[in-house]
Amino acid sequence: MNQTFTLPASLVNDIDMLKRNWGLDDIEATIKHLLKLAVAREKKIFVAQLYQNRQKTLRQCAEILNVELEEMMDILIELGISFGQDDLPQQLETVNKLVKEMRAAKGRAGKIRATVSRRRRRLQKLCDRWQKESSDATAKSRLRFKGRELFVLGHNIKLN
Amino acid sequence: MLFAIDTSTLIILQKLGWLSLCDKTEYDIVWPATVTQELKRQKSRNKAVLDLLNSGKAKERTIQRSREIKDISKTDSDVIFLAAENDATVISEDVLLRKKALKLKVSAISLASFSVLLYQTGLSSKNECLHRLKTLHEKTALSKSEYHQYLQGLLP
Lengths: 160, 156
Fold this sequence. Notes:
Chain A is mainly α.
């Protein structure tokens, strides 16, 4: 693309200074380099604003800038753009709901555990009584209560 | 209780060194050992989220995916649909993604809210929660006013 335009003298002086500093050959190459840098920076700012205004997601912003998600996050951090919590009230409502659900689930699990241990204790008592009262020595020797399993005359009953 | 986490949030967790935050079996968040590797390999495909949910124990229900979620990419809408199918909550640092999830009646929270949730359910201490909120504030994930709102919420 060819475009002709006039630059103010002060700007030309500044560009010339940069040209020398960057060790470039001519003013055209310096302007091209400057434009490249400026466009890249402005594009980042523009995309970051799209994110800030909730018009694009992080992923979409990364796609526009053709960078990895991680780099996109670094760009936002660099520009001081907060990820944002506009929906804080809804979030806290969700947290409260989840806390209630969690407590209810814990309560249910606790009740089940209590019932199981109550039944185990009752069964253990029965076993002890039977062993004490039984006169059958063989049967006695073949009755064991181990962990969650009750062995009675070669049969084992799993307790849940 | 199941959670679906989008890849960008996973990356934040990794950057903050908080991947272990989700390493709580009581929470039904089964964090496969392969997640970190998957993250490196499939960053753009939300594979980690799929793995995470597939290893969960929730009853999967089928929902119509024909409805498209406008204005967000397919990978982002996948997270919302996966959460909906598994009756899970979305954890995302992306406000737009959370808003889209809420529109589909899928609950969504940020990492800051997740930290508060862990504290309120007794899965982490108050100090840990405060430290996490402070870090999120320092890493610009939370503005000053939002940070203070969270702190107020933690007061007895």
